[in-house]
Write a structure and sequence with these properties.
The protein has about 220 residues and is mainly α. The protein is built from seven helices and five strands, in the order H-E-H-E-H-E-H-E-H-E-H-H. The chain has a three-stranded parallel beta sheet with strand order 1-2-3, with no helix packed on it. Strands 4-5 form a two-stranded parallel sheet. Helix 1 (about 10-20) packs parallel to helix 2. The protein is globular and about 50 Å long.
């Protein structure tokens, strides 16, 4: 669930768990019921703090994607359950609130999280303006730059993965220019190989890290 507002209250989270929900992001864009998200400021709300307690008791995985910096550190401090970042990139490469700082990435590595890199062009090219910037500047090599940055900070390839964010909110005009169809995502493996990544690490980044994470956390 991207943005927890459909959960009516902490007690309602139990119903969602029984229906099969296993991963929750507390915020999306702007201020929400439980936390502040992208393009807003502030951390968890009092209701968010209460919801976190219930989610931890349930064993829910919390997705820290889209949280503000304040919200991110609120969750890290208050939540002892499993964390992941489904689609997030690196602030060191593309400045902005929507990306993770190196300190945030290192924190997630310590928490055994996996970070899925997003393929949205505005998260891959500094200063990219959706609808204005020509996406010919953006390629899958920029995606690999973010994957590699996470791996360098982690000291291994166990915490980077494909997040994509290719869910229909935009089309090829806002995707890497060499991503013709979804099948081209596999080109990331070839680019990692060109950079000297071992085959086992490539397979982990392409799919293995997510499989390991969910098998362990579930």
């Amino acid at each position: 669930m991207e943005g927890a507002d459909p959960i009516l209250d902490a007690e309602d989270a139990i119903r969602w768990w029984e229906l099969g929900l296993r991963v929750v992001g507390l915020a999306h864009y702007g201020p929400g019921i439980y936390a502040h998200g992208t393009s807003s400021s502030g951390g968890l709300t009092p209701k968010g703090i209460g919801l976190l307690r219930t989610l931890e008791n349930l064993g829910m995985i919390v997705d820290v994607t889209h949280l503000t910096d304040e919200g991110f550190w609120d969750v890290v401090e208050r939540y002892k359950g499993p964390l992941l970042a489904s689609h997030n990139n690196c602030r060191a490469l593309v400045p902005g609130q929507r990306q993770f700082s190196d300190d945030q990435i290192r924190c997630l590595v310590r928490r055994r999280a996996v970070i899925g890199v997003a393929l949205d062009s505005w998260m891959l090219w500094p200063g990219y303006v959706p609808g204005t910037t020509e996406n010919s500047k953006v390629t899958l090599n920029h995606v690999v730059d973010h994957i590699d940055h996470i791996c360098q900070l982690a000291g291994c390839a166990k915490h980077a993965a494909i997040g994509s964010d290719l869910d229909g909110g935009f089309g090829r005009e806002q995707s890497p220019s060499d991503l013709e169809t979804i099948s081209d995502v596999k080109r990331i493996a070839y680019l990692l190989r060109d950079r000297g990544y071992r085959e086992a690490d490539i397979q982990n980044i392409m799919h293995g890290n997510w499989l390991r994470f969910f098998r362990e956390m579930w």
